[in-house]
């Protein structure tokens, strides 16, 4: 079967021309090729049936994708693949609605929105199952849906012989919850299921009682009935035997050694085992943890001694290389293992994610200057650019073409083409640790200042998020070992203004900080106060600046706001910071509250409360000079007579405060 990148190009051309019948025939041919594949069934066919293969989501909206899929279904009502891709699309959007944090961080409106998307997904998948004699891919997605979320209530009702019904407003007691969930559904282009299917596909077997609760088992068995030992179905199922899903590594190994996998070859069974082994290596040990380092080394060597397919050997060698770089601190060995990893993978194969071995390979090449004598790093960049999906690879390949690095021919025109595509892809990949800006920073940190600056500037010119901030950091000398030739205050300020214009939360904080502390802004003018408050509120979108922004907002409102805003600054912004785990922020907020009670801004004027807050701040941060200065203001400590008078007056005024006016009591030792 052709590569996924080749399939992607073909189907996107058919999507562009809206050639529904040809698209259907193309997928039917892919499915037939997959059916004939005994070595690796499911790959890349399963991936090809995901909507991301048909649509470039860096330029196509979810709504446009949904509209096309619905048009495909309308044009080809008997199409198995149209329903399959729609089911996969809705399942993927359910995951987007839920988000990717821990379950306890997901709000009820998002859980409900995901459930509605799962209803639409399950209905499309059931329809797909009724349209094909071998709907293995539809069964696998249904298995994943059941494991990742839960089956829709109406689907369970169909199996138990009860009337099926979709979720409605009447099912949800909390006011506004369903409307919020429907808004999530609309935001990702998922059509709401109007009516639940009234019957199951005739070929589906009845469900045993235990299969009602273990739905993923039922759907796996349906896939294996259609094709025993289907590797794609088995590997998808094994993912849900990991500890994070309530399973164990023993469960995965037991599955690989058990009857479900009896028809597999030993390399295929080891593909199942790799899922557990990889998951167990969640973080590499520190170099000085000799026992753990030795144990990790034994795990890699033991696995690599087995019979392996090219995919698992390439992956294991890549992670072994990353381990060698980090835990063994042996960069030459890491580079050799990276080269072996690239050679082991099949044609056009490599790690899809930029974080992990690819980042490690770049690190040993750029930071540790390991030469690319075997051309492995060049081949990796070429493969990943061929996928046309990975911004960081495009960015590094652009640098390679601009400067003739890693064996690439110097070709500035090609570099510009790659940068244009990198900028488009980067918009949805900034959450990756090794994103395009991290690649530029790595070049800089490796001593390649010209190359790092080139990439940063090119990305900033294309308005890649936060690239202007990188330029600001370079020109203000924030980066380590910045040559004097890059320091330029005028250019620095231009890039900061550009970053704010681009909407960068971090830039908004930096601009607000400058306006507050450079002494040039008159906050008695309301427009100036509102401007800086706007910057700080925008800065709260950046996790690194969120708490500091709240601190600055609280102080600004206390000092320059209306009487009501002064109270809001103390109560809504400063007080919550006192309860946080960060001692610096809690200490500084406590000191600022002390000033509020000292001057009667945002709190009633009371010396006793002010002194209590100042002392609390000093307990949290005993060596902080700024906090000590605030304590001195509160205590009038520049004058012994005034200090004594302040303390005595505070003692007399302590009856005028309540518990709400005082800081938290120190924790018992």
Automatic annotation (TrEMBL):
InterPro entries, alphabetized: DUF4034, Sel1-like, TPR-like_helical_dom_sf
Protein name as annotated: DUF4034 domain-containing protein
Entries under SMART domains matching the protein: SEL1 (SM00671)
Domain DUF4034: 9-275
Origin species: Alcaligenes xylosoxydans xylosoxydans
């Amino acid at each position: 079967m052709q590569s996924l990148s080749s399939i992607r190009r073909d189907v996107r051309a058919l999507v562009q021309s809206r050639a529904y019948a040809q698209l259907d025939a193309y997928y039917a041919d892919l499915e037939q090729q997959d059916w004939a594949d005994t070595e690796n069934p499911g790959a890349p066919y399963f991936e090809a049936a995901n909507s991301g293969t048909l649509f470039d989501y860096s330029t196509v909206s979810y709504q446009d994708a949904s509209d096309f899929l619905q048009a495909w279904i309308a044009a080809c009502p008997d199409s198995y693949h149209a329903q399959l891709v729609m089911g996969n699309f809705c399942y993927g959007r359910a995951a987007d609605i839920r988000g990717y944090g821990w379950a306890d961080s997901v709000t009820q409106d998002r859980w409900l929105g995901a459930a509605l998307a799962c209803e639409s997904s399950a209905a499309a998948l059931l329809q797909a199952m009724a349209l094909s004699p071998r709907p293995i891919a539809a069964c696998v997605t249904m298995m994943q849906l059941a494991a990742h979320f839960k089956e829709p209530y109406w689907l369970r009702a169909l199996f138990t012989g009860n009337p099926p019904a979709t979720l409605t407003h009447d099912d949800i007691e909390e006011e506004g919850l369903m409307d919020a969930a429907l808004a999530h559904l609309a935001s990702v282009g998922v059509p709401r299921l109007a009516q639940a299917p009234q019957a199951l596909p005739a070929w589906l077997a009845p469900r045993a009682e235990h299969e009602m609760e273990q739905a993923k088992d039922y759907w796996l068995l349906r896939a294996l009935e259609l094709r025993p030992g289907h590797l794609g179905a088995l590997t998808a199922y094994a993912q849900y035997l990991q500890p994070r899903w309530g399973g164990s590594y023993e469960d995965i190994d037991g599955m690989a050694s058990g009857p479900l996998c009896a028809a597999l070859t030993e390399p295929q069974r080891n593909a199942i085992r790799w899922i557990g082994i990889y998951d167990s290596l969640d973080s590499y040990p520190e170099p000085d943890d000799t026992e753990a380092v030795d144990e990790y080394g034994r795990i890699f060597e033991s696995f690599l001694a087995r019979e392996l397919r090219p995919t698992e050997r390439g992956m294991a060698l890549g992670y072994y290389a990353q381990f060698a770089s980090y835990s063994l601190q042996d960069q030459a060995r890491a580079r050799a293992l990276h080269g072996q990893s690239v050679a082991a993978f099949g044609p056009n194969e490599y790690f899809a994610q930029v974080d992990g071995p690819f980042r490690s390979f770049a690190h040993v090449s750029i930071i540790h200057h390991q030469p690319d004598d075997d051309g492995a790093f060049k081949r990796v960049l070429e493969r990943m650019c061929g996928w046309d999906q990975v911004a960081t690879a495009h960015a590094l390949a652009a640098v390679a073409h601009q400067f003739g690095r890693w064996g690439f021919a110097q070709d500035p025109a090609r570099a510009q083409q790659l940068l244009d595509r990198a900028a488009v892809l980067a918009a949805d990949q900034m959450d990756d640790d090794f994103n395009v800006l991290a690649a530029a920073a790595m070049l800089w940190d490796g001593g390649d200042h010209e190359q790092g600056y080139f990439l940063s500037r090119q990305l900033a010119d294309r308005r890649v998020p936060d690239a202007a901030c990188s330029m600001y950091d370079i020109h203000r000398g924030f980066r380590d070992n910045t040559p004097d030739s890059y320091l330029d205050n005028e250019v620095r300020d231009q890039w900061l203004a550009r970053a704010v214009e681009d909407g960068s939360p971090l830039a908004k904080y930096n601009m607000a900080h400058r306006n507050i502390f450079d002494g040039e802004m008159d906050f008695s003018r309301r427009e100036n106060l509102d401007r800086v408050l706007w910057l700080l509120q925008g800065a709260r979108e950046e996790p690194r600046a969120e708490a500091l922004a709240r601190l600055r907002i609280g102080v600004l409102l206390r000092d320059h706001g209306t009487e009501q805003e002064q109270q809001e600054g103390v109560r809504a912004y400063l007080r919550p910071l006192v309860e946080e785990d960060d001692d610096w922020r809690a200490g500084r907020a406590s000191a600022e509250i002390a000033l509020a009670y000292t001057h009667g801004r945002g709190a009633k004027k009371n010396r006793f409360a002010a002194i209590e807050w100042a002392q609390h701040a000093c307990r949290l941060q005993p060596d902080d000079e700024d906090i000590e200065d605030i304590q001195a203001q509160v205590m009038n400590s520049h004058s012994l007579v005034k200090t004594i008078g302040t303390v005595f007056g505070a003692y007399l005024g302590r009856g005028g405060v309540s518990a709400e006016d005082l800081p938290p009591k120190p924790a018992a030792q």
